[in-house]
Write a structure and sequence with these properties.
- By secondary structure, the chain is an alpha/beta fold.
- The strands form two sheets. It has a ten-stranded mixed β-sheet, sandwiched between helices. Strands 6-7 form a two-stranded antiparallel ribbon.
- About 45% of the residues are buried.
- The chain binds S-adenosyl-L-homocysteine and iron/sulfur cluster.
- S-adenosyl-L-homocysteine (SAH) binds next to strand 9, strand 11 and helix 12.
Length: about 425
């Protein structure tokens, strides 16, 4: 949902201040060897078997690799000092620890960071693909917004991603790789030099504490890869981000909602955006296949749903489209009985989009109706009005993420 990057060569870690310019496309060389990043423990054991590691040793070796990869963030096998030299050489001959290539990086004044990542095309000789990954820091948490696909097959009328023609599913390695890249750039590994700068969390020992599957793509249309990746991310001996801090956002792929609960066990966010089928058909065309009543039934049956584990309903504020006070009241009625949170997202316009963001006063009135119905402060962006007011002034040569964009991202990241 974000705009393209303008950007310079990526300097070596640790994180630089300022912004990085986009590397030329011709420089892209797809990886020659497969990366071990994102493999499940079972797949890793199989890979080890393939290079001759005896069956009896594999479990222990997997545990070692897991630690180096996901606790220490190793980028070369040489770093793995607890692994024998012979095995390190064998691993190096067949595999890499490569993450997606970072081709651009932007750091905003408020600490928000955006990375543009380049991934191999699907077929040899095909141009590489690009996806974005955004880091949204708050005082007490750091949320990473992760992509699941290049582009999206769905065509929500307010979403920029939906206008992209090119679509491919990301692999588990490319999904886990986004978290690896963010932690590399932030120095968020055990023993690494931590990034410094404005806006980074000041509590806790992690810069990346929360994950939202809210970048490009519809995660429930790339179910297996997203599931396998999130299980790696949640593994307690590795990256160890608890499933309660991982939120998957769907536009409403009903058949896979129950699977997400059963097979991943993460938190769910649903892009509702309208309270009537007629309007939702227009905003989220998938609604024609899975209308609101069917979607809400799937939500009521979401495995593990309780007052302590609520579903987040996302509602993008579109001026004169879905933002009447009657809509707010209808929203409250519609969600009655579902343990829910409501996240109002200020619309982030893009070139050619046919909508405008609701006025801030309207967002506040809408939010008040929801608040009075018992939902905790639905727009938790107290600085929002200031940011909107400052819009256009904050933008400078090194400030490419617009204020509106950051506001929308912050609202999206508020899932707990
Ligand atoms: N495909 C998934 C997840 C990615 S989009 C989904 O649709 O839920 C993440 C959130 O951003 C969704 O709620 C989506 O509706 C919202 N979104 C998309 N474009 C937006 C825009 N221009 N401004 C504000 N929110 C937007
Ligand atoms: Fe955009 Fe999500 Fe709709 Fe796809 S499903 S077009 S990513 S809002």
């Amino acid at each position: 949902m974000t705009e393209p990057l303008h950007t310079a060569d990526i300097p070596a870690s640790p994180m630089p201040a300022g912004f990085v310019e986009k590397a030329p496309l011709e420089r892209y060389v797809p990886p020659a060897k497969p990366s071990l990043v994102g493999l499940s423990r079972a797949a890793l054991a199989e890979a080890l078997g393939g290079i001759g590691v005896p069956a009896a040793q594999r479990k222990m070796r997997v545990q070692q690799l897991w630690h180096w990869l996901y606790v220490r963030g190793a980028r070369s096998f040489d770093e793995m000092t607890s692994v024998s030299k012979e095995l390190r050489a064998a691993l190096d001959a067949h595999f890499t620890l490569a993450r997606p290539e970072v081709v651009a990086e932007q750091v905003s004044v408020d600490g928000t960071r955006k990375w543009l990542l380049r991934l191999p095309g699907e077929h040899p000789g095909e141009n590489p693909h690009e996806v974005e990954c955004v880091y949204i820091p708050e005082a007490d948490r750091g949320t990473l917004c992760v992509s699941s696909q290049v582009g999206c097959t769905l065509t929500c009328s307010f979403c920029h991603t939906g206008t992209q023609r090119l679509v491919r599913n990301l692999t588990p390695g490319e999904i886990v790789g986004q978290i690896m890249v963010a932690r590399d750039r932030l120095g968020d590994w055990l023993g690494a030099e931590r990034a410094k700068g404005e806006g980074l969390p000041t509590t806790g020992d992690r810069f990346v504490s929360n994950i939202v599957m809210m970048g490009m793509g519809e995660p429930l249309y790339n179910f297996e890869a997203v599931r396998d990746a999130l299980l790696v991310v949640a593994d307690g001996d590795g990256i160890a981000i608890s499933k309660r801090r991982i939120t998957l956002s769907t536009s409403g792929v009903v058949p896979n909602i129950a699977r997400a609960g059963a097979e991943i066990g993460c938190m769910l966010a649903v892009s509702l955006h309208a309270v009537r089928d007629e309007l939702r058909n227009e905003l989220v065309p998938l609604n024609r296949k899975y209308p609101i009543a069917t979607l809400l039934d799937a939500c009521r049956n979401y495995p593990g749903l309780s007052n302590a584990r609520r579903i987040t309903f996302e509602y993008v504020m579109l001026k004169g489209v879905n933002d009447s006070l009657d809509d707010a009241k209808a929203l409250v009625r519609l969600l009655k009985g579902i343990p829910a949170k409501i996240n109002l997202i200020p619309f982030n316009p893009w070139p050619g989009s046919k909508y405008e963001c609701s006025d801030w006063d309207r967002i506040e009135q809408f939010s008040e109706i929801i608040f009075n119905a018992g939902y905790a402060s639905p727009v938790r962006t107290p600085r929002g009005r200031d940011i909107l007011a400052a819009c256009g002034q904050l933008k400078s040569a090194t400030e490419k993420l617009t204020a509106r964009e950051r506001l929308a991202l912050r609202a999206m990241a508020m899932t707990d």
